[in-house]
Amino acid sequence: MIRVVLTVLVAVALLAVSMPALEDARTATTAEQLGTESDRVERAIGGLASGSMSVSDPSLAARTTVTVRAPGGITAAPIHRLALIQPDRSGNGSGAALRYRIDGRRDRTLPIGPDATAATVEVVDGPIALRTRGESHLKLRLVDDGGPTVKVERVG
């Protein structure tokens, strides 16, 4: 009986010691997965801008959709905030960014830049709140707004 109690106490102690490392691993995994999602949005913007021509009539504009998946499950840390923002409203090469907060820590921002494309990016009615669990769908339209501009809106 004493052996069982000691075994349980040792197991609980080991679990308690390893929990901070597990939480750090979950946070790192979640941050990496969100980086992959920001890359997916950036590739969709670049593909739309490089493969299409901007037009002034939004109804005729080239468009595509992209899905942003918030990491979930036991290997992911809880996400408290997830949004697509426009950090620079100056109009000079403006881009977008994915802003998130994990486990109540400080906000982190991943730029989604027009570095690979000649188009600017505009977050329509931004910031766009994205689901912290599951999928959010974004619609991208390439319009001529004083130059090629990819307008990003949430559709689901």
How is this fold's topology laid out?
Elements: H1 2-51, E1 62-70, E2 79-85, E3 96-102, E4 108-112, E5 120-123, E6 128-129, E7 134-144, E8 148-154
Parallel strand pairs: 5-8
Antiparallel strand pairs: 1-7, 2-3, 2-6, 3-4, 7-8
Describe it.
This is DUF7311 domain-containing protein. InterPro entries: DUF7311 (IPR055735). Residues 1-152 form the DUF7311 domain. By secondary structure, the chain is of the alpha+beta class. The protein has one domain. It is 32% helix and 33% strand. It has 1 helix and 8 strands, in the order αββββββββ. The strands form 2 sheets. The chain has a 4-stranded mixed β-sheet, covered by helices on one side. A 4-stranded antiparallel β-sheet has the order 4-3-2-6, with helices on one face. A hairpin with a 3-residue loop joins β7 and β8. The longest helix is centred in the N-terminal third of the chain and has 50 residues, at 2-51. The radius of gyration is 21 Å and the shape is rod-shaped. The model has no long low-confidence stretch (mean pLDDT 84).
